[in-house]
Amino acid sequence: MSVLKELVGKRTHSPELEQYRRSYEAYCEYAHHGRWKPCRHLHLVCEKLEAVERGEIDRLMIFMPPRHGKSQSTTETFPSWFLGRNPDRRVIEVSYSANFAQKFGNRNRKKVADFGEALFGIRLDRSNSSKTNWDIEGHAGGMISVGLGGGITGEGADLLLIDDVVKNRKEAESETVREGIWDEYSATLLTRLAPGGRIILIMTRWHEDDLAGRILKEAKESGEHWEIINLPCEAEEDDPLGRKPGEPLWPERYGADWLAKKKKTVGSRDWYALYQQNPQPPDAVRMFKREWFEVMRDYPRDARSVRYWDLAATEKRTGKDPDWTAGARIAEKDGIYYIVDIRHVQSSPLGVERLVAQTAATDGRSVKICMEQEPGSSGVNTVDHYRRSVLKGYTYYGDKKTSNKVERAMPLSAAAEAGNVKLVIGDWNKDFLDEAEVFPNGRHDDMVDAVSGALTMITSTRFGILDYYREQVEEKGLLGALKGALKGGGT
Question: For the domain 290-460, what is the CATH code?
Answer without folding.
Answer: 3.30.420.240
